[in-house]
Specification:
- The chain is α+β, with helices and mostly antiparallel strands.
- The chain has one domain: Immunoglobulin-like.
- About 20% of the residues lie in helices and about 45% in strands.
- The protein contains three helices and eight strands, in the order H-E-E-E-E-H-E-E-E-H-E.
- The chain has an eight-stranded mixed sheet.
- A hairpin with a 2-residue loop joins strand 2 and strand 3.
- About 20% of the residues are buried.
- Keywords: Signal.
Length: about 120
């Protein structure tokens, strides 16, 4: 029979979310007017997984949000919260100094792979 304090600690861990891996980084891609969400992704185990609306070709705003736990770590420290970019043929491009870069290339320095699936919807 476990001690009462062990049960309390396990219960607190479960409620705090520390017992299960949390998403360290979330991404949302909106049209340039911030009216329609065109893509979404969450990182887990080194992969940013999500969905992008099929058939969209538009200028976009790309927003990144770090989890509370991740804010104190260094992996995503240089990542800004907002970028401009484009979606063309289901591919997200980010404006960087010197031009456009695919989201997949952009995420490489952060040791994240990209796995986006296309979905119907949007406009």
């Amino acid at each position: 029979m476990p001690h009462k304090w062990v049960t309390c600690v396990l219960t607190l861990l479960a409620f705090s979310g520390l017992a299960a891996p949390a998403s360290a980084l979330e991404m949302m891609v909106w049209d340039s007017q911030l009216q329609t969400k065109l893509a979404y992704g969450e990182s887990e185990n080194g992969v940013l997984r999500g969905q992008v609306v099929r058939g969209v070709a538009d200028d976009v705003i790309i927003l990144f949000s770090k989890s509370d736990l991740e804010r104190g770590r260094a992996q995503f420290a240089p990542l800004r919260a907002r970028y401009e970019g484009e979606i063309r043929g289901g591919q997200i491009m980010i404006k960087v100094p010197g031009g456009l870069q695919t989201l997949e290339q952009f995420l490489m320095p952060y040791r994240l792979k990209l796995s986006l699936t296309e979905t119907s919807g949007g406009r």
